Amino acid sequence: MEIQFLGGAREVGRSAVLVDDALLLDYGTLTGEPPQYPVGRPEPDAVVVSHGHLDHVGQVPALLRGDRRPPIHWTPPTAELARVLAEDSLKLRGYECTFTESHVQRLGEVEERHGYGEPFVVEAGGTDYEVTFFDAGHIPGSAHVLVDSGGRSPPGSRAESDDGDTRLLYTADFHTDDTRLLSGSTARPDADVVICESTYSDVTHEDRSRVEERFVETVRTTRYEGATALIPAFAIGRTQEVLTVLEDTEIRPYLDGMGQRVTDIVRRHPGYVRNADALRRAKSGARYVTGRDGQRERIAADNEAVVTTSGMLSGGPVLRYLSMLRSDPTNRVCLTGYQVEGTNGRRLLERGNCELDGGVVPVAARVDLFDFSAHADRDGLRSFLDDYRGATVLVNHGDRCPAFAEELRGDGYDASAPELGERVTV
């Protein structure tokens, strides 16, 4: 088996892994100005998508240009979330989108949906791969992807010879701890090769219950002081997590932006969340913003809590709220997730200013970062990899991939960190 890293190698974003020049695992976008896409122009025979975040699925519609129609395999929530992201990308201004509305519509022609633990056969490059999704505990519908190069397909689907079989486990993004929204991943399927994410390989997450306590107290105090708490959140996963945390309190947040539509989608797939009833109550307690008749201006002028996209301040209603709230130091911006280098959120966190209305402006409002991460931390990664000491480990999706791979080698693993565009034969 030959694996080529078209994106996500020694970086966070634009994940794309090509297997045997035929089977593509993820095809995402690296958020920034301008956004970056996977290298090369692959023409896969089939595509398997791990989950519905922009950095893993953002460029999938572009694979359907011309007469290309590779089948796309994903879980039911990922199928719906991918469309939301694609439609939102078409609305953005400032850069040329790599696909059109027609490409997005074609997704429905080629997609195939699969649940967790249901092996299916993918034909690519003359090989029948058996592929299985396992719950990754990252966002609703997220999956580890197990790719078996032969011998374990359903009867009659392929040759019976097991010679040269390789079992590749692509972890994509995963979390090993339980959260309000999801249960942590416990899947450890047998594998010869593991492509492992490393986003938080040098971080130990704060206890989640403590994070929730600080977050609720911060929002509560801000409103008590007569100010507004602006809560930027990723529309997929993080928004629903924040809503379930606030559901236990007297706070009834406003919900603005793409998170509204995504919350409705997630509620349609109750089997992919930990507590569907809690999410139902959380949605019922949130007040949806329409944006009509000066509604956002009235909300910003009151002592409210507003959960809105985007989580890295790269677009969406959050910029409108921020422009109205930034000058008052009693207001707060409660960042709820990782801020990628080069994004507006990272700039605000490190420099106290951000890009608004075509210029860079100071932000007097207080800024706090709460670690609601949906990724495994250092302990979670090492605990997961304990089951793969005899496997080849290829580290990706992180800011310090080579360093983490070196640490693993020091502990006896066969580990490396491939570079962007590199081919690895396993």
TrEMBL record:
Transmembrane segments: none annotated. One of its GO terms (molecular function) is hydrolase activity. Residues 13-219 form the Metallo-beta-lactamase domain. InterPro entries: Beta_Casp, MBL, Metallo-B-lactamas, RibonucZ/Hydroxyglut_hydro, RMMBL. Residues 239-348 form the Beta-Casp domain. It comes from the Archaea. SUPFAM superfamilies: Metallo-hydrolase/oxidoreductase (SSF56281). The keyword Cell division does not apply. This is Putative mRNA 3-end processing factor. It comes from Halobaculum gomorrense.
